[in-house]
Design a protein that fits this description.
The structure is a single chain. This protein is 23% helix and 40% strand. The strands form two sheets. Strands 1, 2, 3, 4, 5, 6, 7, 10, 11, 12, 13, 14, 15 and 16 form a 14-stranded antiparallel β-sheet that branches. Strands 8-9 form a two-stranded antiparallel ribbon. Strand 15 (258-269) and strand 16 (274-285) form a beta hairpin. It is built from five helices and 16 strands. By secondary structure, the protein is an alpha+beta fold.
Length: 312
């Protein structure tokens, strides 16, 4: 009888030991999996620390297309450069070629000083169509425009393309009727992800010129493009100031025909101190035409006209 009891106890101990061992292995496996899913550390994450200034190196390059920065870094075969877990590329992958459309929502916003713009607050959603084109042997992303919800704005508070503002002034001159600065206009605010020029009725002007354009692979199916532009602003009374604009676009593959997109647009003072940052997120797919139709309806222009105006 004693032997039977001892045998049962021994068997129970073996079973419990086996269960404990399996539990430990399972927990160990979970830890391993969680370590593989470590948070990304790309340029978007770096800009989340509002106290960190813009790296000086990004203000000195003169690149109009994605350019590898090989300074103090070993170059790998295939024309890419290793950056720890990152790889600097010269082209998007060929499976990105064509149009991608969808909605992007503002999920984070920061302003170092008050910024009165109702279209830039958390929860506001915009429409975008990205266009990847073939340039030689490379796939490039054309500068995109995010179309924010329709608003009404006074002429004095609106920003225009210089050519459009000159056209308005010419029409006023021909009709002999001055432009009313307090007239309310039906406006379609945009968040431009490219360089360009703008003007206000009062005489203020500004322009942005690209200084750096880099493209990095952060992980499997995750690509991040970082474009920095120097902007110059002239006030209506002749005062001048300058700074930098940074646009970061990250595409993460979520399926053969879908990508999770994060877009950060960051403004800096001339010394590189961050002034403002807006982060938008959303899904874009190859089924881009419905998005284009929504933009066309919102702007009240044919899609092809919008493509020409915004160089989509």
């Amino acid at each position: 009888m004693k032997n039977a009891i001892c045998n049962c106890a021994l068997l129970l101990a073996v079973v419990l030991s086996s269960v404990a061992s399996e539990t430990t292995l399972a927990e160990s496996g979970n830890d391993s999996n969680s370590s593989k899913a470590a948070p990304l550390e790309g340029r978007i994450e770096q800009t989340a620390d509002f106290k960190v200034p813009l790296p000086a190196g990004l203000t000195k390059l003169k690149a109009l297309v994605p350019k590898m920065d090989t300074t103090h870094r070993p170059v790998l075969k295939g024309g890419v450069t290793e950056l720890g877990s990152e790889v600097v590329e010269s082209s998007f992958s060929s499976d990105m070629l064509g149009f991608w459309g969808g909605e992007l929502k503002i999920t984070s916003i920061y302003h170092a000083r008050p910024f009165a713009d109702g279209q830039q607050r958390e929860g506001i959603t915009g429409l975008v169509v990205f266009h990847f084109v073939k340039d030689g042997n490379d796939i490039k992303l054309k500068p995109a425009t995010i179309f924010m919800p329709h608003v009404r704005k006074r002429v004095r508070d609106s920003v225009f393309r210089p050519a459009r503002l000159e056209q308005m002034k010419e029409t006023a001159n021909q009709t002999g009727k001055d432009i009313d600065p307090d007239q309310l206009l039906e406006r379609n605010p945009v968040i431009s992800l490219g360089s360009g020029e703008w003007a206000r009725l009062g005489g203020a002007t500004g322009k942005a010129t690209i200084t750096a354009n880099t493209l990095r692979t952060l992980g499997t199916g995750i690509v991040e493009q970082d474009i920095v532009s120097r902007y110059e602003h002239n006030s209506a009374v002749g005062d001048k100031r300058s700074g930098y604009l940074e646009v970061i676009c990250r595409f993460k593959q979520t399926g053969p025909d879908s990508r999770f997109v994060q877009v950060a647009k960051v403004g800096y003072a001339a010394n590189g101190t961050m002034i403002r940052r807006v982060l938008l997120e959303g899904i874009v797919t190859r089924d881009w035409q419905p998005t284009a139709d929504k933009i066309s309806k919102q702007v009240n222009r044919p899609w092809q006209r919008i493509v020409l105006i915004h160089d989509i």
